[in-house]
Design brief:
The chain has 478 residues and is an alpha+beta fold. The protein has two domains: 3-162 and 339-425, FAD/NAD(P)-binding domain (3-Layer(bba) Sandwich), CATH 3.50.50; 167-334, no CATH class. Helix content is 31%, strand content 17%. It is built from 13 helices and 19 strands. The chain has helices at residues 15-26, 68-78, 82-89, 102-115, 147-157, 207-218, 237-243, 253-257, 310-317, 342-345, 370-388, 401-412, 454-477, and strands at 8-11, 31-35, 58-61, 91-92, 97-100, 119-123, 137-139, 163-168, 171-173, 183-184, 200-205, 285-291, 298-301, 328-330, 333-338, 351-352, 355-360, 437-441, 447-451. The strands form five sheets. Strands 6-2-1-7-17-16 form a six-stranded mixed β-sheet, with helices on one face. A six-stranded antiparallel β-sheet has the order 10-11-12-13-9-14. It starts with 7 loop residues before the first strand and ends with a helix.
């Protein structure tokens, strides 16, 4: 086959697959992007658009000086990320975070991919493993990998357990929220992309209201897992907590509540940094709602992923002060997420060791979060394109967020205990003594060094990462 006739087949049109297609096509390589929707639907998606967000609408912190996720945003923008570009175009107010109107965002990604001259869109399920004649493949099927493909991967790799569970938070119509009770404020009045410092709706609870709410959560009726989600059959909430491998970053609210009376008050319902203007005091607990669309007509309950039956959700969530008359545009749910043991199965270029023509990208690799998934898609697309063009690919430095993330999932993590992971400074090499300290002069005129702490220490990581990434980009583009 002539080089000009070769293509990269990318399976999955989520964030990772979309980003991989964009990066590979921009490198001058032909791409066929396979997406089974709408020919075959999933339990969580509502549209046939690319990069549809099925859980939160937040890409989390956009602070590239003190936050690892914000640093990842910065690095992806430096590499011409489609996901970050369209995220910026679809941004809605969210304090220090980057949150998007999910419809505008998906429409922007879909338009960009559909109009790219090097990308061909093909709709329909890839049943089982891709054909051997596809010499360059990226599997980016994400949380809802089809049963046939998941089974093919399982048969090929010999792994027995590929699933955990992600949860979806409810969405409320904004004009149904009682703003005589609730108020607008970001935690610590922090501003961010498209924000003003008053970007969240806050619903306060006193101690009695909080304890009554927890009691109802613990005694609510919960929907049964579908057979495809929980092969061992229907289980009680207590049994599900023991047996279901939930990811802590997307824990159902009822599971958190079952772990102790104050768990939610130190988690998604923490009142720290929020002052009720009607009392001038910090409430006992707070439920926050974040804008979910550009019009500001929809707000999602932050951290309120749940498996409660829909009737129970409506009843119990209307106990929240300010939400007594809430109209729910969408209620919560729980869905399966599929990932592989990447440290064991993949090489440093995200290729499957037993079949190197196949790469993996996105959540299926065991990276957790929208931005992390897209970041691995970005790297997979560039790696696949470089291979197609007969070029070498130098990995980004491990001191960068991109390098730290890909290094973690391809060998940095312990394969025996591997679980999905968000990007953190903890994935990066420790700071050197010089980087981790600051020199100062004493009143006696002597020079001493003190350890950096808090934000100063985090900023040292981001400064180092940006400098190293810049050098890497100069080398790549040189």
């Amino acid at each position: 086959m002539r080089m000009s006739d070769q293509v990269i087949h990318i399976i999955g049109g989520g964030l990772a697959g979309s980003e991989a297609a964009w990066q590979a096509a921009n490198a001058g390589v032909k791409v066929i992007l396979h997406e089974m929707r709408p020919v075959k639907k999933t339990p969580a998606h509502n549209t046939d658009g690319y990069a549809e967000l099925v859980c939160s609408n937040s890409f989390r912190s956009d602070d590239d000086e003190h936050n690892a996720v914000g640093l990842l945003h910065y690095e992806m923008r430096a590499l011409n990320s489609l996901i970050m570009r369209e995220g910026g175009e679809a941004a809605v107010p969210a304090g220090g975070a980057l949150a998007v109107d999910r419809d505008i965002f998906s429409a922007g990604v879909t338009k960009a991919l559909s109009e790219h001259p090097f990308i061909t869109i093909e709709r329909g399920e890839i049943e089982g493993l891709p054909p051997e004649e596809w010499g360059n493949v990226i599997i980016a099927t994400g949380p809802l990998t089809s049963d046939a493909l998941a089974q093919g991967i399982q048969d090929l790799t010999g792994e027995d357990e590929l699933s955990f569970f992600d949860a979806i938070a409810p969405i409320v119509e904004a004009d149904s929220i009682d703003m005589d009770v609730a108020w607008m404020q970001s935690r610590y009045d922090k501003e961010g992309p498209a924000g003003t410092g008053k970007d969240y709706i806050n619903c306060p609870m006193d101690e009695a209201q909080y304890k009554a709410f927890i009691d109802e959560l613990l005694n609510a009726e919960y929907g049964l897992f579908k057979e495809w989600e929980l092969p061992s059959g229907s289980k009680s909430l207590a049994e599900q907590e023991v047996d279901t491998p939930y990811f802590d970053g997307c824990m159902p609210i009822e599971i958190m509540a079952s772990r102790g009376i104050d768990t939610l008050r130190f988690g998604p319902m923490k009142p720290v940094g929020l002052i009720d203007p009607r009392t001038g005091e910090e409430p006992y607990a707070v439920v926050q709602l974040r804008q979910d669309n550009a019009l500001g007509t929809l707000y999602n309950l932050v951290g309120f992923q749940t498996k409660m039956k829909w009737g129970e959700q409506s009843r119990i969530f209307k106990m929240i002060p300010g939400l007594e008359n809430a109209v729910f545009a969408r209620l919560g749910g729980l869905h399966r997420n599929t990932f592989i043991n990447s440290p064991k199965l993949l090489d440093e270029n995200l290729r499957l060791k037993v079949r190197p023509s196949i790469r993996f990208a996105g959540q299926i690799t065991g990276c957790e979060g929208y931005v992390e998934s897209a970041a691995i898609g970005l790297l997979a697309g560039r790696m696949a394109a470089a291979e197609m063009l007969g070029k070498s690919f130098d990995l980004p430095p491990q001191t960068s967020a991109l390098g730290a993330l890909v290094s973690h999932i391809t060998g940095g993590a312990d394969a025996k205990s591997f679980q999905p992971m968000n990007v953190t400074f903890g994935l990066m090499p420790p700071l050197s003594k010089e980087e981790a300290t600051v020199q100062y002069e004493t009143t006696a005129g002597k020079k001493k060094r003190a350890k950096l702490r808090g934000k100063d220490r985090k900023r040292a990581y981001t400064v180092r990462a940006k400098n190293d990434l810049r050098l890497w980009l100069d080398q790549v583009n040189g």
